[in-house]
Amino acid sequence: MKLLDHYREWRKMAEKILKEEVENLKPLKFKAIAFTGMGGSGIVGDYVKSFLQDVSRTPIIVVKDLYLPTWIGKDWLVVAVSYSGNTSETLSAVKEALSKEAYVAAVSSGGKLLELMDKERLPYVKVGGGYAPRSALPLLLYASLKLLDELGLSIPMNQVQESLDVLGGVKEAEDEGKSIAEALKGYTPIIVSDVRYEALAWRFKSELNENAKIVAKCETVPESMHNDVEGYEEASSKFKALLLSAHDDTVYTKVLEKFIEELLKEKGFKPYRLELKGKGRLAKLMHGAHVAGFTSLYLAEKRKVEPVKVELIARYRKFLEEALP
Ligand code: F6R
Is 256 exposed, middle or buried (0-12, 13-18, 19+ CB in 10 A)? Predict the structure, then answer.
């Protein structure tokens, strides 16, 4: 199956994984959660954190590192997400979490991670293989939400349902992706979002890196208004700004549309505005990710590059494995 077909199946993937069982489920009591994972798996922690930060009282942090901060230990739940189950950084963080007596749970398609989870009888959700990690976002994300829900963190299921409905709009997302690909062709994209949507801005950047094989940057409001904004003085012929507009009940939509967009136009940038669909945070995050996937694939087609191959990531992974003790 082609990568494009994976993205077209996102709603089905999400619905299927929400019905999966959690293995080795047991009641746990934790005071905070650390998600750990890298790349297409690491983004899941960012998504969960962004989704739950306004609805859950349990602190959530994301660790994209070989090592954990010293203060993670007993009473923490460390959720490891790795599509392959063989990512060195994630495996190292999991081993450290176990040595610090934190609870560990996982989402993966297999590999060393699930071998370890089985051996230690720790909770996990197994997702299906055969995808690229980035094209399996719904599997990894909704499996993580299911896992947290079963472990006692209550997840707003109405928002989950709304996000599934939004993912049903495949044609609209694909058409929007095609238009954005056309607009971005030949430029270095600058993706601008409200800080609540930083996870999406990062995801958009990463999809353009991994599928379309281009350099891209992202920046978030309000921090970017204290530094990046001065860079708008640089030549507009090299860059194209993509504004992610969420229309949440904050001042940031106004800042994005009435200040940044106007300023970019003034500086000759011709910004593209993507209106995120849905009411809740999760629906908007997933709509944006869906459009990002399609954008990156249509841009790859225009650039005549093979999106599925990630040779340089593979080269780094091998280097790290050999470099580690
Ligand atoms: C995304 C991708 C990478 C991997 C990353 C971690 O499609 O290929 O970003 O997600 O190298 O690997 P996993 O996801 O197997 O832990």
Answer: buried
